[in-house]
Amino acid sequence: MLRLVRVALHIARAAATAAVLHPRRDQTRRLEWVRGWSVRLLEILAVRIAIVGAPPYAGVPAMIVANHVSWLDIFAINAVHTARFVAKSEIRRWPLLGWLCEEGGTLFIERARRHHAAHINEQVAAALRQGDTFAVFPEGTTTAGNAVQPFHASLLQPALACNATLYPVAIRYTRADGSLCSEADYEGDKSVLDTLLRMITQPEINVRLQFLSPLTTTGNHRRELAHEAARLIARALDVPAPRRRPESIAGRKA
Question: How many CB atoms are located within 10 Å of the residue 50 CB?
Answer without folding.
Answer: 11
